[in-house]
Each structure stands twice: as C-alpha cells, then as structure tokens.
Amino acid sequence: MNALVRLLTLSLFLLFINTIAFAEEIYRWETPDGTTVYSDKPEPNVHATKIEQKLAPTIHLPSVKMSDIPKKVTPPDSLAYQSIHIVSPQNETTFSTPPSTVFVSVDIKPALQPNHRIVFLKDGLPVSAPSLATSVSVADLYRGSHTLQAQIVDAAGKRVISSKVTTIYVQQPSAPKK
Questions:
Q1: Is 92 helix (H, G, I), strand (E, B) or coil?
Q2: How many separate domains does the chain show?
Q3: pLDDT at 74
Q4: Domain co-membership, 109 together with 160
Q5: Taking a C-beta distance cutoff of 8 angstroms, is the pair 113, 134 a contact?
Q6: Does residue 19 surpass a pLDDT of 80?
Q7: Which residue(s) pair with 86 in the sheet?
Q8: The pLDDT value given to residue 8
Q9: SS (HEC) of 18-60
Q10: Within a domain: residue 65?
Q11: Burial readout 134-171 (b: 16 or more C-beta within 10 A, e: otherwise)
C-alpha cells in the first residue's frame, strides 16, 4: 500500500511539473492554513505572486559524420575472453592418499591470444612461470585444503581474467591402532 501511495504521489508531482512547464504564467500564494499553492490562474480575492519562468538550457550537439565512426572496434583484453575455468581437478575433489602431483587443466574461450600467457596458482601463489600451456602439474600437496586458480596475463604481466577458485582436499591416512 505504501508503494502505491508513493507511486500516486510521484505521478501527481510529474503531472504538476509537466503542467507548469507548458503554462504561460504561474502564480503562487498561501492559504489561511499556511499551505503554499501554485497555479496558472490565481483565485479571486487572493494576493498571488507571479513567478518568473526561466527557459531550460538548450544543448547543441555537434553533428557526426559516418566517416568519423570507426569501422571495427577492438574490445579491451578483459572483454576478449568469455571464460577461463579449471576443468581438472573438479572443485571440492578429495584425494584420500597424498598425491605426488596433481594435474591442473583449464579451458579458455576463445583461445589464448598470442600476447597472453597462463599462470597457475596454488594457495594464491604461482606454481609456474607464465606460459602457453593449458595444464600444469602441481606438487607438494600436503594434508589439508588447497586452492587452485588460473589467470591469463598480458605481456606486461597484468592480469586480464581469472578463473574461479577450485578447492581440493588432501587426506592423510592414519596407521591403524594396535
């Protein structure tokens, strides 16, 4: 109900503003109870003040020639890629025995641009130098959770796009008690 009252109030206000915009003369006066009234016609026997109207400013835009519009717009590097995501291992994968290495693979759409490289991260730190390889082996995975991520970087090493973080778990089997 409150939203309906707001909508009705806004509609009436806009209608009032629209009416004022096209009126030739606008008058203002106060009623005996202190309410301020605006109208294009003052009521009889009321001391109304005529309000001076000012025209809205006009902006003149320059004309644009079709020859000024570039034929082909090259998107920035960050828009060139639709996605990068880790396809292996899958998120929330658990390894029951500590692996000596885990192979991490990514899928990039569209393909990697010539001036870009891929950086793989384990627990937020690079595990390899930037390269063209779409997979890498990650070693030294000890018991606990680990995060994996891939990033595409440009020639200056600036990150262009990152994959979502993939979390993996490594469990250490314990020896049976005797």
A1: coil
A2: 2
A3: 56
A4: yes
A5: no
A6: no
A7: 106
A8: 64
A9: HHHHHCCCEEEEECCCCCEEEECCCCCCCCCEEECCCCCCCCC
A10: no
A11: bebebeebeeeebebbbbbbeeeeeebbebeebebebe
Domain that holds residue 125: 77-170
The angle at the Cα of 82, spanning 167 to 91, to the nearest 5 degrees, equals: 15
DSSP symbol at 71: S
**Angstrom distance (rounded) from CA 47 to CA 173:** 94
Look at residue 102 and tell me if it is in a domain: yes
Same domain, 9 and 87: no
Model confidence band, residue 51 (pLDDT cutoffs 50, 70, 90): confident
The CATH number for 133's domain is: 2.60.40.10
pTM of the model: 0.54
Domain for residue 62, yes or no?
no
Task: Please check whether residue 72 lies inside any domain of the structure.
Answer: no
Task: For residue range 73-129, list pLDDT tens digits in order.
Answer: 555 555 578 889 999 999 988 887 766 678 899 999 988 888 899 999 999 999 889
Nearest-angstrom CA–CA distance, 147 and 118: 17
Q: Do 9 and 41 share a domain, yes or no? A: yes
